[in-house]
Amino acid sequence: MPAASLASSSAQAAAQSFDVRPFAEKVGAEIVGLDLSKPLNDADFARVHQAHLDYHVVVFRDQQITPQQQIDFSRRFGVLQIHVLKQFLLANHPEILIVSNIVENGQPVGLGDAGKYWHSDLSYKELPSLGSMLYAQELPSEGGDTLFADMHRAWDTLPEHLRKAVEGRSAVHNYTARYSEGHNAASWRPTLTPEQLAQVVEVTHPIVRTHPENGRKALFVSEGFTTRIVGLPEDESRALLQEIYDHSVRPEHIYRHHWQANDMVFWDNRSLIHLAAGCPAHLRRKLHRTTIQGDAPF
Ligand code: OGA
Ligand code: MN
Q1: Is there a domain that residue 249 lies in?
Q2: What is the pLDDT of residue 7?
Q3: Less crowded by CB within 10 Å, the N or C end of the chain?
Q4: What is the distance between the alpha carbons of residues 262 and 33, in angstroms, rounded to a whole number?
């Protein structure tokens, strides 16, 4: 159990009765009957933590929680990361990034598309994210799904010649890799200030990482933030990465989340990559994200 949960003083909170129901896809599970507006006692927290490790993405149904309650629950897993796009942080709660396509008075209220390309949150940092929690505020009547791909399975099933080609190698991750690529008016992105650019200097991580809690290996590259493999010629690097991306997102590695009102989704960025499928621009979509800092990948 992470130190953060031991340090919390909720051991005496009342036990809650809830179910963990794995999805048929084997990636992901829903948690039904748990109320995150109440502090979890250590035994309940341990079950949630284990479900997160086993299924990589857990969906808490029917939550009615405040921003502070989302922050408090997120903190039990570790230190929270503040997103570089300061203009999209919730007022008085900078730990929450607003993900939204809504434009009010000509100003976007949040990050219009937080993931049009497959990615692992904050993989462009020295300390990428352990996991992210996304809590539905407003959902469109169609579209807006989030897809998750299991990178443990992707590694386990990677053809031998590709395993050999990447094992022991590192790749460069850069926030600005595809920052404004393929964007339109509805998914406009602000120009990064020199100060913001200084916070997202590119980093290098192993292509195959070992999950610090479950011990399993996982691929840790994605089209969103990975730019090249260290030590390979540009064309070879590009071709190899493309083969890995294609394999990673094969249908059998994927859980597609269709959002329900009051869902809070918590995924493991060390085990999965994810993608925002997008929704028609005229339909409103808004979610609140907290991001928990993880370890340096090894
Ligand atoms: C994110 C993200 C996906 C979505 O918030 O990190 O990638 O469907 N969101 O909004
Ligand atoms: Mn994301």
Answers
A1: yes
A2: 46
A3: C
A4: 13
Which pLDDT score is estimated for 1? 46
Distance, CA of 276 to CA of 294 (rounded, Å)? 22
Examine the residue annotation and report whether 150 is marked as an active-site residue of this protein: no
Q: Respond yes or no: is residue 119 known to be catalytic.
A: yes
Q: Tell me whether residue 113 is one of the annotated catalytic residues.
A: no
Positions of E strands within 220-297:
226-229, 254-257, 264-268, 272-276, 286-293
Using the mean position of ligand 1's atoms as its centre, give its distance from the Cα of residue 127 in Å. 19
Residues within 6 Å of ligand 1 by CB: 99, 114-115, 121, 132, 134, 146, 274, 276, 287, 289
Distance of CA 26 to the CA centre of its chain: 18
Q: Is residue 87 part of a domain?
A: yes
> What domain count does the chain have?
1
The catalytic residue among 152, 173, 209, 289 is 289
Compute, in angstroms, the gap from residue 237 CA to the centroid of ligand 2: 24
Name the catalytic one among 72, 113, 121, 268: 121
pLDDT under 70 in the chain at which residues?
1-11, 182-188
Task: Give the per-residue pLDDT at 113.
Answer: 80
pLDDT digits (tens, 9 = 90+) for 94-108: 999 999 999 999 899
Separation of alpha carbons 170 and 97, rounded Å: 29
Q: Which domain holds residue 72?
A: 3-293
161 is catalytic: no
Provide the pLDDT for residue 186.
56
Mutational pocket test of ligand 1: of 100, 125, 274, the residue with most ligand atoms within 8 Å of the beta carbon:
274
> Where are the extended beta strands (E) located within 111-233?
129-138, 146-150, 170-173, 203-206, 208-210, 217-219, 226-229
